[in-house]
Amino acid sequence: MFDIDLDELDADDAAKAGAGLESGEWNVRRDACKALGDLADAGKAEPHLQRLRDLAASDPDYEVKKAARRALQQLRERGVQPRAAGPEAAAGASAGAPEDGRRAAHSGPTLLLRVFGDVLPMRTEREGVTPAELAELWEGAWGVQYASRVRFEAPEGSPTRHLNPREDAVPLSPAVVTLHCGVGSILLALATALKSYGMLSEDEVGAERERRRRQQAVESERRQEADAKEHERWRKAEMRRQQRRADESGACVTNAPFVRNKTLGEQTVAGL
């Protein structure tokens, strides 16, 4: 079980909580989220904000999602916000391949999309892609529900506030396009997807989603096994408690002295 003194968390404990976010056990991830949200010095949680946001958007366990969202809310209320990445940093990140080697080299057009202050890169196979085409890709290939509700802020000097979904082309890098949506959870899910799939081809996205689906299935099976063991442990403990109560009750009746009721002429237990 995740064991941290929530009253006096120091830097080492914050690091331990951050490590707990990566656990394969759902209850450890949940407790780690709660620990970070309850940090005495909320600033120590800043290195783990992105992981909290990832869990809040896509963790397979509902309890973990809820704990991560609660922790993010607590930290925001105390002034802890993710650091915004500049366009140069985002473009630089898009140029290099990650350690796992899942991203193929991409020298074609790239978009820079601002979500919640973060500037996130996304590859595109051609110029002139429209917001509607991106939304269709996000909903279909990436699995981001209701992505069509996202609005793309128009460049400065445009006659309208937002790009026309079907007629306007999304500006390419180095221009940064800010995304808006009235439902924050949609943007949160999209930001998580952009960080995971932004520089992957459509085929690579499909392979990565299948890998994650299998991983979630394994975790779900492990959780079911753990729940079954816990249920069986509880059932046996309850049976032992009931047996003890029955034994104690039987001993009380057996050892009670009998007296003769003079009126009814029957034996009754003393005191009853």
What does this structure look like?
The chain has helices at residues 11-20, 26-37, 49-58, 62-77, 87-95, 131-140, 184-197, 202-255, and strands at 110-115, 118-123, 151-152, 176-180, 258-260, 267-269. It has 272 residues and is α+β, with helices and mostly antiparallel strands. It has three domains: 12-78, Alpha Horseshoe (Leucine-rich Repeat Variant), CATH 1.25.10; 110-200, no CATH class; 201-247. The strands form two sheets. A four-stranded mixed beta sheet has the order 2-1-4-3, with helices on both faces. It has a two-stranded antiparallel sheet with strand order 5-6. Helix 1 runs antiparallel to helix 2 (26-37) and helix 3 (49-58) packs across helix 4 (62-77). The longest helix has 54 residues, at 202-255. The radius of gyration is 29 Å and the shape is elongated. It starts with 10 loop residues before the first helix and ends with a strand. Residues 4-9, 88-103, 253-259 and 268-272 have low confidence and may be disordered.
